[in-house]
Design a protein that fits this description.
The chain is mainly β. It is about 5% helix and about 50% strand. It has 2 helices and 20 strands. The two termini are about 35 Å apart. InterPro entries: OM_porin_bac (IPR005318), Porin_dom_sf (IPR023614).
């Protein structure tokens, strides 16, 4: 339905036609007056270390070689143009972003196949640089409702773009977001292609946790978030991943104040059932999450409980980040029948005269991962993991981030962290350690 070149040319052509027939008024708000042009740069560095028997596979001139370390180091840039809206009852606007990445680490031995952190070709050679159209979307606004058509990004509990690498993912399709009723946000969308985080072009929509080639024609969703005057947060969404699954989501939360301590409580629940042609096999699964996060002054202690009830992974669309559950870190703790617990201590150093500096230290334990009773039928896409029998894993992590609060470099940030992950034999992520350093620097042009 949508293709990168057709999308870009068609959207630009539409924009030109709109501008030619829609006057751009020189008022406080308008297409030009509210436009922004920003160059966002991100340097993304990752160093992974395999522990115990874990090794990475590097392709060298002497043939495949097992190595203990793997490095990804990439400089990314996003040139983001966000227009305002033309004057009138129906406002018209356009968003356009160009993405570019340059590999700073190019050794085949050091990158060891790249994973999904750095782009390599089929021979293991690092792609020196690549570029693409990351966003190209026409947008229409009526009152407080905005419709977007083209390549763009969205956030909801059932469909959301991932931004965990050098550059973010995006998707081709159409979405609507409405804020016309106070406290209520309505969202819906339909997408049929993904533009991945690491690489140019587009790809078919696929689940994340399957080694079997399974594709879907589209993901469609609709739902709403509501915040009451008393502070209650509630969400309800439905989605269809065509011929793979139907999914329902309910969320409920509130921040409560008890003396000097404020406590944020959040409940999340998903129900996922296979649908249509069941290209991924039979699915019958529920996922539940509870997080309780008390805060005293600058100290927050988050406790998270999570349960997957079903013989399948809690899965989501590839290149999305649609998992609104509490125990999400290096691992997602979303294995078949997995139970998990998290404790996370966070500190805001503004209280010590260092605004913008935050730290986090966490421990997450997952256990009871069991897929031996999995029966997805002839199309079952999780059959590879049937050897998971009471598997377990845990991680210990630490993270520090600093964001510039004022001046010419306001918004620039540095984030660094180290995670230790240990697992039983057949758990998916295995025994690994990883250090990450991420430097974001925005330059406002317009």
């Amino acid at each position: 339905m949508y293709r990168t070149l057709k999308l870009a040319i068609g959207s630009i052509g539409t924009l030109a036609a709109v501008i030619s027939v829609c006057p751009v008024y020189a008022q406080d708000h308008g297409f030009v007056e509210d436009s922004t042009l920003t160059l966002n740069t991100r340097q993304w560095y990752s160093h992974e270390i395999g522990s115990k028997a874990v090794r990475f596979r590097a392709q060298t001139s002497e043939g495949p070689r097992a190595v203990r370390d793997r490095t990804a180091w990439v400089q990314g840039a996003k040139l983001d143009y966000l227009s305002g809206f033309t004057q009138g009852a129906l406002g018209v606007g356009f968003d356009f972003s160009v993405y570019s990445a340059v590999a700073l680490e190019r050794s085949k031995l050091a990158t060891a196949g790249g994973s999904n952190r750095i782009l390599v070709d089929k021979d293991g050679n690092v792609v020196d640089d690549w570029s693409k159209v990351g966003v190209a979307a026409l947008k229409l606004k009526l009152a407080e409702t905005t419709l977007k058509v083209g390549r763009h990004q969205m956030k909801s509990p059932v469909m959301s773009y991932a931004d965990t690498r050098t550059l973010p993912a995006s998707f081709d399709g159409i979405s609507l977001e409405s804020h016309d009723i106070e406290g209520l946000t309505i969202k819906s969308g339909y997408f049929d292609k993904a533009s991945p985080r690491t690489g140019a072009g587009t790809q078919d929509l696929t689940p994340t946790y399957t080694l079997k080639p399974v594709t879907s024609d589209f993901i469609a969703y609709g739902g709403a978030d509501y915040v009451s005057k008393s502070g209650w947060r509630s969400s309800a969404y439905l989605s269809r991943f065509e011929d793979i699954w139907d999914r329902e989501y309910l969320g409920l939360g509130k921040k409560c104040q008890w003396g000097p301590i404020s406590t944020d409580v959040q409940l999340d629940a998903y129900n996922t059932q296979s649908s249509g042609a069941e290209k991924g096999g039979y699915i019958d699964q529920q996922a539940y999450g509870l997080s309780v996060a008390p805060t005293w002054k600058n100290h927050t202690l988050k406790l998270g409980l999570q349960k997957i009830d079903g013989d399948e992974f809690f899965d989501f669309v590839g290149e999305s980040n649609a998992i609104n559950l509490p125990n999400i870190a290096l691992s997602n703790y979303n294995g078949p029948n997995e139970k998990s617990f998290q404790v996370n201590y966070m500190n805001d150093f503004a209280a010590y005269g260092l605004p913008g500096l935050r730290t986090s230290v966490w421990y997450i334990k997952g256990w009871g991962i069991d897929a031996i009773h999995y029966n997805g039928g002839p199309n079952g896409m999780y059959s590879t993991f049937k050897n998971q029998d009471d598997e377990n894993h845990y991680e210990v992590g630490t993270l520090a981030s600093y964001a510039v609060q004022s001046g010419d470099f306001k918004g620039a940030s540095v984030t660094g962290g180290y995670v230790w992950h240990r697992s039983s034999q057949f758990q998916l992520e295995n025994n690994i350690e990883e250090f990450r350093l991420i430097i974001n620097v925005p330059f406002k042009i317009l």
